[in-house]
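Data's thin. Show one?
=====
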Amino acid sequence: MLVLPAELTHDQAAACSRMLAQALRGQSDPVVVADAGALERFDSSALAVLLDCRREALAAGKGFAVARMPARLRELASVYGVANLLPAPG
């Protein structure tokens, strides 16, 4: 499972994307799960990071899901029309 940090704004987005992409490459599970439960301070950059992570997972032939997504981030995903791309684990 990939774990997002407590703070994920524009300033941290690029470094976080790189860190998650590297961690994803080490995952052997068929579905990569990103745990967003620690997120406390974030902006729409958190969505960009999750979508980058999803893209990496799909490129590696894996599924992608987001666990414990904060309600406010789920609302942002809906506003941007990407909520269906960031499903909860099944």
